[in-house]
Amino acid sequence: MITGPTFEEMLHPDKIDPDIRARALKAHTEDPLDPINLFNITWRDAHNDVYHLVLPPELTGVDAHIVVIFGREFPSGSHKVGAAYSVLLEMELFGQVDPAVHTLVWPSTGNYGIGGAWVGGRMGCKSVVVLPAGMSRERFERIESYGAQINRTVGSESNVKEIYDETKRLRASGSHVRILNQFEVMGNYRFHYHVTGNTIAELAGELAQQGIGTGKVSAFVSAMGSAGTIAAGDRLKQIWPDHKIVGLEPVQCPTLYNNGYGAHDIEGIGDKHVAWIHNVHNMDALMCIDDLDCKMGLQLLTEPRARQVLVDRYGADPAVVEQMATLFGISGVCNILGAIKTARYYGYGRDDVIVTVATDALDRYYSVMDHMAARYGTLDEAAAVGRVERIFYGAKTDWIAAGTPEARTRWHNLKYYTWVEQQGKTVEELDAQRDPAWWQQHQALVQEIDTRLVDLRKAEPTRV
C-alpha cells in the first residue's frame, strides 16, 4: 500500500520526516508524477508559508481585507487533490479498497476527478473518472495525462444526476468497483474541516503580525460544488462563534436560493442539488453570482492591457496585479465576487478579514478565455474600466438569502430528493444530520485516521 501524509502532516508539513519532505519538494517540479508528491498535499510552501494573496482594494472596492488562499501549487494544480487523497486513504485504512483488486470511480465535474486520477495513479490504483462532456478541454487533457479512463456523461456543470446514473451503472458492473463520491463521502469534509479550516485560522494570526486584520477571520466565503471546501467554515466557527459562513451558487442555477435549476458556466460549483456532506445548518448566508460576470472578471484579470488599467488608472500594485494574471479560474473569481458582496452585506471594514479560495487556476481555462475574446473582443482601456466599475465595484447585495432557521431547514430538506429518493440513504440518516453531534463525530475521526496511518507505517513500511 502506497500512502502519504496524515491530516496533521497536511496541516503542518514541517512535521513530515525531513528527508521525505526534502524529496517531495524536489519532485514537485522535477518529477510531479512521483508518488513522493503525496507529501506535497498541503496549503504551505517550502518555507512553511500559506499559499495566499491579499487582494488589492483597488480591485475589490471595499475596506475589508479579502484574502484568497489558492490551490494552484497542490499536486494536480488544485486543492481538490487533498480531498481525493483523504477519501482514498480512509477507504484503504478501513479495508474498503484494495489497490490490487478494485477499480476506483471518481464522480466529478472536473477538479476532483483530476485529483482522483492523479492520486489513484500515485497510490497504485486503476481509476475511472466520470465527467460531463461539456467541461473545459483542459480538464480532459489533464485526466488523460495521469492515465485514468474517462466516462463522459451528457451536459455540463449542473448535470450531476447524469453522473450519478453512470456511477450506478458502473457499480452494478461488478464487485471490483468502488465509488468515491465526493458529494457523499466524509473524507472530503474532513480534509477541509481539519486541514483547510485550521490553515486559515493560523493564517489569520500570521496576517495580523503583518498589520492585516486582528488575528480573526470574520467570514469564510465558498461556492459549493461537492461542498467540501465550505466545511472549513465549520472549524472557523468553532474558533470564533460569531464567524460567518457564506455559500455561493450561480444565478443561473439557484438551487438552494429558490429551488432553481439550469445550466451555467462556473465550472466546479452549482451542481443542482445539495451535497450530503454540506452542513447547511451552519451556513449564515447564501449568495448567487452571475456566471458571465465571473468569466468577464477573469478576462479582465488575465488580459495584459486590462491588467495595466488596474495599475495606471486605479493605482494597484503592479506585482500583485501580475500575480493575479494566472492565479484564478472561473470559480475563483466567483468566490472573489462573493467576498465583496459579503463585505458589503455585513458592513465589514478595515479590521475585518474575509477569506475565500481559488480552487484552480487559469491553466484550466485558456480555451474558455479564447472563446470570451472571440465573442466579446479583447479589452481596451474603456472596456476594462467598465468591467472594474460594473463587476467589482458594482457588486450589489442582491440575490442573498440569510441563513434563518427556516432557510436552513429548507436547505436540509432538499437533500431528501437526491439522497433518499435516488441514492439510497434513509430518512433516519438524513434526520441525524440536524444534530450538531453528527458532524462532531465525523470531525473527531481525524485523530483515529491519523493513528491508523501511523500504526500502518510502523507495521508495514510503504514504498514512498
SSE map:
Layout lengths: L6 H5 L6 H13 L21 E3 L2 H4 L4 E6 L9 H14 L9 E5 L3 H12 L3 E7 L4 H9 L3 E5 L6 H12 L5 E3 L6 H24 L9 E5 L8 H8 L4 E7 L4 H4 L26 E5 L1 H12 L1 H9 L5 H7 L5 H17 L6 E6 L7 H11 L4 H12 L7 E3 L2 H9 L1 H6 L6 H6 L3 H24 L5
Parallel strand pairs: 2-10, 3-4, 3-6, 4-5, 7-8, 7-10, 8-9
Antiparallel strand pairs: 1-2, 9-11
Helix pairs in contact: 4-5, 4-8, 5-6, 8-9, 8-20, 11-14, 11-15, 11-16, 12-16
Strand order of the largest sheet: 1-2-10-7-8-9-11
Kindly estimate the percentage of residues that lie in beta strands according to DSSP.
Answer: 5-15%
Uncertain segments: none
Shape: globular
CATH fold title of the domain at 52-72 and 192-405: Rossmann fold
CATH domain class of the domain at 52-72 and 192-405: Alpha Beta
- Characterize the largest beta sheet: strand count, sense, and whether it forms a barrel: 7 strands, mixed
Radius of gyration: 21 Å
The number of distinct β-strands equals 11
Look at the helices and sheets and give the structural class. alpha/beta
Overall pLDDT:
95
Question: How far apart lie the N and C ends?
Answer: 9 Å
Q: Assign the CATH architecture of the domain at 52-72 and 192-405.
A: 3-Layer(aba) Sandwich
State the helical fraction: 40-55%
Q: DSSP helix count?
A: 20
